[in-house]
UniProtKB/TrEMBL annotation:
It comes from the Bacteria. Transmembrane segments: none annotated. The lineage of its organism: Bacteria, Bacillati, Actinomycetota, Actinomycetes, Micrococcales. Belongs to the UPF0065 (bug) family. It holds the Pfam family TctC. This is Tricarboxylic transporter. Residues 1-41 are annotated as: Disordered. InterPro entries: BUG (IPR005064), Bug_dom1 (IPR042100).
């Protein structure tokens, strides 16, 4: 099994610039951050998760089948969130559900949560379905998970329907930090990678940190990384001094920057965001643009007509005022991409993330 990272990972209780190198062709929700050498307690936890996964998966699969009713996508639709309630994937599907209900786009639409193994339990369930009226949201986190866990089910087993949005990350430090800009942070980090601790609320955050290290000529294997359970815990780790920097999600971090509790040093995005006075990493000289994208997937083997109907339904949903409001509230970036182009995009992203994991492993 491939571990997520070769970085030195510690529990929260512990507590001349480097040359830039040209970034390789590598780059790109959710809860995968096991340390390289898990403690006995962690090992037991992982073991329990492995045993529980088939039980969770079977129960969720039966729940989806029970609620499916008919198979017409306009009559009865199941939106699958591959994580527990409250996370990014769940939020996306709840907003999609509310949008479809408010605009009477579907007769009945339900959300089913299938947590486990970074979204790959849900992926395995979807890969066994045939009914076209099941739509799972997925993306970067599941690709990372399938590589980490070497899962039998992979994202190429299911049918890409449409990419919808992506969320950017922010390189952030406490407002009291001595690092006033990204160059100062990288200088301090490079001088002693194990001393400057990073934190993050998901596997995507850790991938961004690793990619920045590689772009800045810093060995990610020497870095201290403290996993947090979500953005809120990562923020607390920064504020109480447990960690000194994070590559957290924009929706979590930017309100803390506005309040003056945190300082944003760089936006991990290919271009600036309107109204956001934080430079992008490319503008600062570092080609790091990983995005946490979210796309919809249907079961394998669905017909071209089914895919076309699902694409049309999603297009109608994302054109509504309700969805536009959600995009604004969560600081998402709309990145529409149809099914034909999405097939190649997913293949390219899988190759790029696998290459990044190879870099992490050294």
């Amino acid at each position: 099994m491939i571990t997520l990272s070769a970085q030195r990972t510690v529990a929260p209780a512990e507590t001349e610039p480097r040359p830039r190198r040209r970034r390789r062709v590598i780059a790109p929700e959710e809860d995968l951050q096991p340390p390289p050498n898990p403690s006995r307690r962690r090992a037991l936890s992982i073991g329990f998760g492995v045993l529980a996964a088939p039980v969770i998966g079977t129960a969720a699969y039966q729940s989806i089948k029970a609620g499916a009713g008919g198979t017409d996508v306009r009559s009865n639709l199941t939106l699958i969130a591959p994580a527990a309630a409250g996370g990014g994937w769940d939020t996306f599907q709840r907003e999609m559900q509310q949008t479809m209900r408010s605009n009477s786009l579907v007769g009945n639409v339900q959300v089913v949560n299938v947590p486990g193994a970074g979204g790959t339990i849900a992926l395995g369930n979807l890969s066994q379905m045939k009914e076209p009226n099941n739509l799972m949201v997925g993306g970067t986190g599941q690709i990372a998970a399938q590589i980490q866990f070497g899962t039998a089910s992979v994202i190429s087993d299911v049918t890409p329907v449409a990419r919808v949005v992506e969320e950017y990350a922010l390189i952030t430090v406490p407002a009291s930090s001595p690092y006033q800009d990204l160059e100062q942070l990288l200088q301090g980090w490079g001088d002693d990678p194990s001393r400057l601790a990073w934190t993050g609320g998901g596997s995507f955050d850790q991938l961004v940190m690793t990619d920045l290290a590689l772009a800045a000529g810093i060995d990610p294997g020497e870095t201290t990384y403290i996993p947090s359970d979500g953005g809120g815990e990562a923020i607390q780790a920064l504020l109480n001094g447990t960690a000194q920097a994070t590559a957290g999600g924009f929706a979590d971090m930017y309100p803390q920057i506005e309040s003056g509790r945190l300082r944003g040093l760089g936006l991990v995005a290919p271009e600036p965001l309107d109204g956001i006075d934080i430079p992008t990493l490319p503008d600062l000289g570092y080609d790091v643009t990983l995005t946490n994208w979210r796309a919809m997937f249907a079961p394998p083997g669905v017909s071209d007509d089914d895919v076309a109907q699902l694409e049309e339904l999603i297009a109608e949903a994302v054109a509504t005022p309700e969805w536009k409001d959600a995009v604004k509230r969560y600081s998402w970036k709309e990145v529409p991409l149809g099914s034909e182009d999405l097939v190649q995009y997913v293949e390219d992203e899988t190759v790029r993330i696998a290459a990044l994991f190879e870099e992490i492993q050294g």
